Amino acid sequence: MKAGGIFSVVLVLALASLSAGAYDVTETTQDYQWQAADWQVLDGTKTLVLDLDWSRGCGESNAWSVWGYLADDPAVDEKIRNRTPDLWTDWHVIVHNGTIDQSTARVYRYLPAGLNWWLGFSSGTDGNGPWTSLTAIALDPGQTVANNQILSVYFVFTPIDPNLPVKIDEWPTKDWVPEPSSIAAMAMGLVAMGFSLRRRLR
User: Which residue of 10, 38, 82, 114 sits 20 to 30 Å from the alpha carbon of 64, by its own alpha carbon?
Assistant: First the structure.
């Protein structure tokens, strides 16, 4: 085969791979300890960059965990492809031994492009120590994540005790299931929006 023919075949195979949604991924079939190669410096911030194929089901019983040790204030930047038949309406994150910086967090449908999801936060302590959580909700049904679509999750966090590992638990839900604190925060936000709208209409 001539060189031009070989190039054409390679190009066709590469385009076919991209159209099928193939990319370097971390499978979510089992929990994962992050590796040095997973970290990049993006905009001056040490960032855990993960492309995930989510083949687990929905709900906390199907939570996936990534964990490891660190001492600085890193970011997490994930692109998560939905490999299930479920329509994702929520995304839940719990950072054990870490405090999420609320001002940096954003969750949205990455492919096809969508708008930011509503975010709620809470914190507490359990038998494993302190934790903070993020609940992201697609309030607009048109922003949910269907099979083979991709969700983007980004946040910065601060480890609480650098001598202990940080563990990040994550899972989707296919029904609107916010945490109680998120319900309260959302209600307050909607009330504030109502007052603002009424003032504008006056």
Answer: 114
